[in-house]
Automatic annotation (TrEMBL):
Its main location: membrane. It is found in: Membrane. One of its GO terms (biological process) is defense response to other organism. This is Late embryogenesis abundant protein LEA-2 subgroup domain-containing protein. Keywords: Membrane, Transmembrane, Transmembrane helix. The keyword Ion transport does not apply. The chain crosses the membrane at residues 76-100. It comes from Alexandrium monilatum. GO terms for cellular component: membrane. Residues 28-65 are annotated as: Disordered. The keyword Transmembrane helix applies.
Amino acid sequence: FGSSLSFCAPCPRGAVCGHCCQMSVRKDQKDTKLPLWNPRESSEDRKGGKILPYNGTPSDSEEESDDDEPFCSCRAWLVGVCACAVTVFILLGALSLLLVPGFQFRQPTWRVDSLLVEAVDVGALDLEGLAAADTGRCPPGDPCGLAQARGCSRCPDPGMRNDGCVCQRGVPGERGSGGAAPPGTVVEADTSACPLLDRCGILTGVECSRCPDRSWVNDGCLCRRPLSTKQFFRGLEGFLGLLSGNASTLVQMSLQAGVELSNPNHLGAEAGEGSFFVRYKGTPIGTAKTAPQSIGANTSTSMSVSVRVDRVPADVAMQMTQELLDSGNQLSLLVDGRLPARVGFLRVTCGVRCDLRIDTSQLPATVLTKEACRYSYGV
């Protein structure tokens, strides 16, 4: 009383102990630890009240009898816990190799291997007496000087009409002077001096027809007052807008791009819907979509992208005309696109950006004086 005694029960022969405990005697609120019970002590020793200390180092005779007598392992449960932890660690490591992108799969790649410019049609180039204006003083927000920066562009000849990005020679004011006919007016020419077999003087090349004065353009049987580039662009844009219900194009252009997709993995890949854009100085002027398709394992496939330029606003068309006039029919364009792809657990977005410079004077042959493509991949 006032003391407590705890001890281990002896392990039966052939059995494995769950755990061992210490024997202690509590006396006067203090613990006195006694040696561990030796499973090999005799019954006489227990009856006599003698508790022999257990020596953890077995003797030669004990080593020989290990197979015959059970040995009580006090930490057997730790071995099971450690084995379970190692197994879980190995399984998690193997699972991470399968799930983390880049360990198990490699990203698909793509490359633009061909570019074909099928047509470029800038209607303003048919106007007479055009020249590119110097717009180096104009701000980016008003590159032609037609709005708040009016007057920033300069014509090569002070006598030319300034229409922002483009200047035109020999064009009077929009309403003429006095009772002159407005630009765009068409009248019949005086063909009284022309022969009977060539009433307009076109077949023989004889300039026999006459217009009211030198401000008119002689087209044989007809005379017309020339349009300024500004009138041409604004008038054509409004006319096409009435036909289509929105602001349509002033420039006709079509491009064909060949793209090669490669899948370096042992599993098939899926390419999603791609988007491609043609831009001029940052402004989108044409778009195209590509349909989703499958790519076999360790193979490459080709796809064709047709981009139609069909939405060019008037101010952008004037800038394109200015560049064509100033650079000897050279036109700079930017083609960029994005395409999502998936292989296994890896998802990649492929990007491309191609800076092009086209020599339109060589059409229908495609001559690129500059072709620089950069590729990007995002996981």
